UniProtKB/TrEMBL annotation:
Record-level GO cellular component terms: cytosol
Binding residues for Mg(2+): 54, 147
Protein source organism: Neomesorhizobium albiziae
Residues spanning the signal sequence: none
Assembly: Monomer.
Catalytic activity: DNA(n) + a 2'-deoxyribonucleoside 5'-triphosphate = DNA(n+1) + diphosphate
Name by which UniProt lists this protein: DNA polymerase IV
Keyword tags: Cytoplasm, DNA damage, DNA repair, DNA replication, DNA-binding, DNA-directed DNA polymerase, Magnesium, Metal-binding, Mutator protein, Nucleotidyltransferase, Transferase
Location relative to the cell: Cytoplasm
Active site, per annotation: 148
PANTHER family hit by this protein: DNA POLYMERASE KAPPA, DNA REPAIR POLYMERASE UMUC / TRANSFERASE FAMILY MEMBER
Cofactor mode of binding and number, as noted: Binds 2 magnesium ions per subunit.
UniProt domain UmuC: residue ranges: 50-230
Amino acid sequence: MFAAMPAPVNDPNHGFCRDCLTLQRDLSKRCVQCGSPRLARHPELYSLHIAHIDCDAFYASVEKRDNPDLKDKPLIIGGGKRGVVSTACYIARIHGVRSAMPMFKALEACPQAVVIPPNMEKYVRVGREVRAMMQALTPLVEPLSIDEAFLDLAGTERLHGRPPALVLAQFALDVERQIGITVSAGLSYCKFLAKVASDFRKPRGLSVIGEAEAVGFLAEQPVTLIWGVGKAFAAVLERDGIRMIGQLQKLERNELMRRYGTMGDRLFHLSRGMDQRVVHADQEAKSVSAETTFDTDLASAADLVPILRALSEKVSARLKKAGIAGRTVVLKLKTQDFKLRTRNRQLSDPTRLADRIFQTGMQLLEKETDGTKFRLIGIGVSDLSDDARADPPDLVDTQSRKRAMAEGAMDALRDKFGRHAVETGYTFGKRRNAHPPEHLDD
């Protein structure tokens, strides 16, 4: 990806230009070559190698790339009035729109916003393009989601002829030019602070947190910066008078563990910038699932079953495409008062078949259709493995092989003519409800 060049010998405090990658000779506010103010400078700039890369407002950025008319408009990616915001562009965020916000609140905050339902197939495709570019930098890429990952760039300087900081800057430029979206990157000596750094100066950010400054920097941050400290646990800490990380730094490890158990050990280490986790390449997914939020609450099996069938087919298609199978089927339901129900059943062997996922999901659903109204339903599989031993012949259910063969024939027709080319009796004639808009999946 890069032409070889000698490793930088200039003062890291002078750094380089993020737009043209020219090394800087002094502390001028603009690049000596192109005049850009986007300069990367830091005392440890050329010695750090753990990076976190995060695509900026990913879904919204992809949609704006594909429709230039949306460029200067507030854009929300979400699923109808009863759904939630999957993501929002930065213009919409200025108006107070945030991810996971109920759609009706988002539209109250930004009524002029353009709303587009998620197109997960497109986002997955673009995410894979970005991932491939990451893997051209280093084999040590640890994906966290469709649009973010950790990278360990140690030892790659000889390959690229540049230190990690310059490799990251070049990568960001390449993504912008070749794929048409932007990314932000954080660079540090550990995963925790690399991820923290990537949140600075979004969008198009490149931020650095060095080892020498870590303890002092963290001391001035709220405890919620630490991974695992959400609203509930932050409230526990606040009851003990702890709001800032600096207060945690004054407490001994034994005291923190006495108060907060294993979480206390994490607080001790991360509050001091101590994170020994390494970057693991290509972490496997733990589950494959699909879900949707309804425009109106549903209670009857007649309404829920067609949707369950369509979601089961979506999960099955993803399993088959990835060459994996799952042994545990998980049903997810959310009531009209936002209470979550999850039910699961372990199968005798892994499956990737829509029919088997659906039939198991139906058995779980039967016990829940007691008049309760639901706003969301989801189905998925966990305990994943490769599909080599999936769905062996069933000696008890002699029709299972015929159903598997019929499903294979349906898959072939859908691959050729589209996913609605063939439908089962569960979904036929019920397309609006049985095939809800794409929604954010696990």
